[in-house]
Amino acid sequence: MLKSFQILGCSGGVPTQDRGVSSLIISTADFDIMIDCGEGTYLNWQRQGCKWKHLHYIFITHLHPDHCGGLIPLLFYRKLYGITNPLTLVGPPDLESFVLQGFRLFNTSIKQEIRWINIEETPRGNLKSGIAFQAEEMVHKIPCWGYRISDSEKNIVFVTDTLPNENAVKLAENADVLIHEATFTHDNRVKAREHYHSTQLQAMEIADKAKVQRLILTHFSQRIKDSELNEWQWNGQPCVVFNKRQIL
């Protein structure tokens, strides 16, 4: 059963002193799912009191550094702590070679029970305890996927690093929560298109079309100040929660 979610990093591109880069934790009654693992995710994850024994799945949207730069370090720390429970990594076709080659170049062995799911070959499936996943490819500079995590009653969708597109609407249809990137403000929509990103108003349009219950925005340019983000609302609710845990 899905219980809560918490954004561990909401900065797009580069971390700041106050905002880590992309990562999300979804907690079920039995285990945690991480989506994206940018630089510094381990420290933010640890700071929030997360536990190794609960982390059973890591999904990666795409292989840009602000979304996967913390993954190999996280796995290395896991090795140092002697964590033995199985871990499943889900993501782009090159994810497995990225991790394994990284360990080879660091001249260290991985020696962990890791299972791999190539999302291009397996765009939907079942996790443990009745939790399911679904993926749709987004529109970015490199192959990138959005994810929908569901139980029998609730679902949460994570979409980042993409131009607005119909796959995002399809993935988020009737979702309880849509977490969508808003790298640029709408007055910078031309720049957003040039960089294959979305604005806050475009994300809101996706939420409207998909008829979601709640919209949360993330992946912000460091040029957007917290004071501006705190003013963003959709359907009368705040759109930005930073790293505050949210109950589903």
Written account of the structure:
With 248 residues, the chain is an alpha/beta fold. The chain has one domain: Ribonuclease Z/Hydroxyacylglutathione hydrolase-like (Metallo-beta-lactamase, Chain A, 4-Layer Sandwich). The chain contains eight helices and 15 strands. The protein has helices at 41-47, 65-68, 71-80, 95-105, 166-172, 189-194, 200-210, 226-229, and strands at residues 2-9, 23-28, 32-37, 55-59, 87-91, 114-118, 124-126, 132-137, 145-150, 155-159, 177-181, 214-218, 233-234, 237-238, 246-247. The strands form three sheets. The protein has a seven-stranded mixed beta sheet. Strands 7-8-9-10-11-12 form a six-stranded mixed beta sheet. Strands 13-14 form a two-stranded antiparallel ribbon. Strand 10 (155-159), helix 5 and strand 11 (177-181) form a beta-alpha-beta unit. Helix 5 (166-172) packs across helix 7 (200-210). The chain is globular and about 50 Å long.
Whole-number radius of gyration?
17 Å
Structural class by sheet pairing and helices: alpha/beta
CATH fold field value: Metallo-beta-lactamase, Chain A
CATH class: Alpha Beta
Quick structural overview:
With 248 residues, the chain is of the alpha/beta class.
Topology record:
Layout: E1 2-9, E2 23-28, E3 32-37, H1 41-47, E4 55-59, H2 65-68, H3 71-80, E5 87-91, H4 95-105, E6 114-118, E7 124-126, E8 132-137, E9 145-150, E10 155-159, H5 166-172, E11 177-181, H6 189-194, H7 200-210, E12 214-218, H8 226-229, E13 233-234, E14 237-238, E15 246-247
Parallel strand pairs: 3-4, 4-5, 5-6, 10-11, 11-12
Antiparallel strand pairs: 1-2, 1-15, 2-3, 7-8, 8-9, 9-10, 13-14
Helix pairs in contact: 5-7
